Amino acid sequence: MSDRKRKRRPGAGRKPIDPQGAVIAPVRFTRDEWEAINRVGKRYELKRSQVIRAATKYWLKKLQYPELHVAALTLLITILIKKIEARTRRKWIEHPMTGVAVCEEVGRLIDSLAPWVKERPVIPPELQGIARDLIVIIMHLYQQPRPSLAHADYDWDDWAALTMVAKDLGPALLRNVGKGGGAVVTITEVET
Question: Residue 24 to residues 20, 51, 135, 141: CA-CA distances in angstroms?
Fold first, then answer.
């Protein structure tokens, strides 16, 4: 065989996922993990490899987004919620007292990390609506799982993550609408 690299015939074989070349990495999963990967694939009509690649890409992106401060806070909040739920033996999303404890303790955690100021600044209106917009998008995606709209502020990875979040948190949002948890808002009201 010569020193020349063999070229793929046009139309033959699988196209590479990366023009620089792909790496095949053997990874072991427990049966439960593999079944969970299969369930996610069925739910979102994805192949197992797509689920694994999306999860890996999301995690790597999350750890790189900007200077790790968001990922570090996410991990701290995760540990905090695990500790609270372990003490109450209830999920925050299902048990009112556990939910209130999570709200207060997450706020206390963030307050201890955010820059200290003598007087709290007034939050401008364009920042006050971000949580409401996310809530509306999650409610929309829960009721209509296939994203039927695009939003300039969210890239595809955000939409994929929000779609998954909607599956888990959508019922809680709908449960709280009209019970002091917020007003019904349509997706067309989300600012661009």
Answer: 13, 15, 38, 34
Q: Does residue 19 lie in a domain region?
A: no
Query: What are the pLDDT digits (tens) for 13-40?
Result: 666 666 677 788 888 999 999 999 999 8
Residue 165 lies inside a defined structural domain of this protein:
yes
Tens of pLDDT, residues 56-92: 877 777 655 556 677 778 888 999 999 999 999 999 9
Residue 170 lies in a domain: yes
Q: Show the domain range for 184.
A: 125-192
Count of the separate structural domains present in the chain:
1
Does residue 6 lie within any of the structural domains? no
| Residue found under tokens 């929309």 | 140
Rounded-to-integer distance, Cα 25 and Cα 84, Å: 37
Phi then psi for residue 25, to 5 deg, are -115, 120
